[in-house]
Amino acid sequence: MSPEADINTIADAFIRKEIQSAQGITAIHRAKQLIDSLPIDKWGVVTSATTALAKARLSSAGFHIPAVLVTSDSVVKGKPAPDCYKLAAQLLGAPPRDCLVFEDSISGIEAAIAAGIHVIHVNGQETVDGVLCSIKDYAEVSIETKANGLIVEINTKHQTDAR
User: What domains, with CATH codes, occur in the chain?
Assistant: First the structure.
């Protein structure tokens, strides 16, 4: 067996195990309420997980599968390359500058910033340059739908417009 075949076999087994262990995953505090408050065509998920794993985790945490789901299966170069976030913005029909990403990983933050998208750091323990702000969980966020877009308010007194 070639080394490449060995890697693929190991990766497939790892993904199957992760999908099986997705049961019991819970959402970050108030994430579901925040998502449920958004118009369905105004949000998506960008993840380094495979499509199957992302769907298993989202379902386990009580989320419906969004129309815009960009996974490792969707792009050639994953995070920290900006490709995934550029694709998500395109699928949402919005220029990157009018998008807002809630991101918990450094590579994801780097990808979003490189794509020209504003970033709020979620559940981060370290300070990250280039983000609008950091939040502990989604209890600090409220979203209001306006005719010209969505207004995102952060209870830490930071505010940004995301169209």
Answer: 3-162 (3.40.50.1000)
Based on the number of CB atoms within 10 Å of its own CB, is 99 exposed (0-12), middle (13-18) or buried (19 or more)? buried
pTM: 0.82
Q: Return per-residue pLDDT of the chain as tens, 163 residues.
A: 566 668 878 877 878 887 777 788 888 889 999 999 888 888 999 999 999 999 999 999 999 999 999 999 999 999 999 999 999 999 999 999 999 999 999 999 999 999 999 999 998 677 788 999 888 889 888 887 777 776 777 765 444 444 4
Token pair, residue 51, equals: 């499509």
